[in-house]
Amino acid sequence: MIINIILSNASSDPIYIQIMNQIRQSILNGDLKAGDSLPSIRQLAKDLQVSVITTKRAYEELEKEQLIDTVVGKGCFVSGANKDFIREQRMKRLEEKMMEIIRESKELSLSQQDVIEHLTLLFEEEQTP
Amino acid sequence: MNAIEIRNLTKAYPLFTVDDVSLDVRQGYITGLIGPNGVGKSTLIKMMLGIVRPDSGSVKILGCEMPKQEIAIKQRIGIVSDDCFYYEHLTIHDTKKLVAPFYDKWNDSKFKGYLDQFELSPKKKIGDLSKGMKIKLALAVALSHEAELLIMDEPTSGLDPVFRREMLDLLADMMQNERNSIIFSTHITTDLDRIADYITFINRGKIVFNEAKEDVLERYALIKGDMELLDSDIRKEFIGIRETAVGFEGLVDNRHKAAQLFGNHAVLETPSLEDIMYFTAKGGRVHA
What we know:
The complex is a heterodimer. Chain A is mainly alpha-helical. Chain A has helices spanning 15-28, 41-48, 52-64, 83-107, 112-127; strands at residues 37-38, 68-71, 75-78. Chain A folds into 2 domains: 15-78, Winged helix-like DNA-binding domain superfamily/Winged helix DNA-binding domain (Arc Repressor Mutant, subunit A, Orthogonal Bundle), CATH 1.10.10.10; 83-127. A 3-stranded antiparallel beta sheet of chain A has the order 1-3-2. In chain A, strand 2 and strand 3 (75-78) form a beta hairpin. Chain B has 2 domains: 2-212, Rossmann fold (3-Layer(aba) Sandwich); 220-287, no CATH class. Chain B has helices spanning 41-48, 70-75, 92-99, 108-117, 131-143, 161-174, 192-195, 213-219, 232-236, 255-262, 273-287, and strands at 2-12, 17-26, 30-34, 56-61, 64-66, 77-81, 149-153, 181-186, 198-203, 206-212, 221-225, 240-244, 247-252, 267-269. In chain B, the strands form 3 sheets. Chain B has a 6-stranded mixed beta sheet with strand order 6-7-8-3-9-10, sandwiched between helices. A 4-stranded antiparallel beta sheet of chain B has the order 2-1-4-5. Chain B has a 4-stranded antiparallel beta sheet with strand order 12-13-11-14. Chain B: InterPro entries: AAA+_ATPase (IPR003593), ABC_transporter-like_ATP-bd (IPR003439), ABC_Transporter_VariousFunc (IPR051782), P-loop_NTPase (IPR027417). Chain B: It comes from Paenibacillus lactis. Chain B: Residues 1-229 form the ABC transporter domain.
């Protein structure tokens, strides 16, 4: 089981969100596979030196997203929901964000071409280290 | 299930009063009791332990009544305080021989292990121990009789940062068992706050809040901006505010409302517990 969680004090995201995002990322990119066990809520709290409520909340949110399952008395596992489902979920979220961009662009009276050009520019910036 | 249940606890002193305090300390979690100096944190803890007798009110620990079932309760709790209860002229070894027989579940090898880990020599006299070493000894005793509840009064005072971090691990070890609970008081906000699940804030003998730390940090906001933004109505929104020639900095307990009120005109930040403590204590004085 490979699981790396790095918490940043400089991040504006609350700690439970940081934990959630990183576990989700590990599941989506395949570091964590369906059926892999996750550290217990209390063990993770100890390892990260955060409160139990923080890790509990992160797990609860991931459970809501159907990314992990909690089996009473046995612990937490990466959900059996398949990778296509996970990718689909992610695509759906991305599409929602794109819709938001489109709406916002219309309000600012930007053309489709303007938005595409802007996006291309940002893509290139993102790739240069 | 609560590890500690306090109901309507009152103790009046000539200069200050712990005033009708009710408090639940949840089982399975770490609770941090925060507040400035001299607001009743230690008095509250001493009343829990039966060291100070309350004028009125009741205390239940691990489901048992204090002080009626005090002996049974004290088997199951560990107390860490820099107020040293031990005889100054005895060595650590002699102190252990004195203390251990009181506990049914005393574990001698565990105790020896902690002394080693904390670099405490059994031959050392209690009177020669530094403040930090006394805390370490109290912690070793507390962890060596399978306490289900740890009550710590200012445990980090006198501890160096290295041991403070080690202590986090020891406490987290204890919390691997979800039946165990910890409450500690502190007036400085340290790394210990990081592992606290619940925060109880006490000011002038009253509980300001007792909530999950995450909820507290989400509810409060620290606002920084130009003086032009302030008028008498806006000032009322603040719990405490610090105004200077170059702007203001203030605390509100309704982040949502503040976000609507100030929009992009001011900076909204998540406060630290120290910010909350500072502005609440200071704000209280201004309006008094």
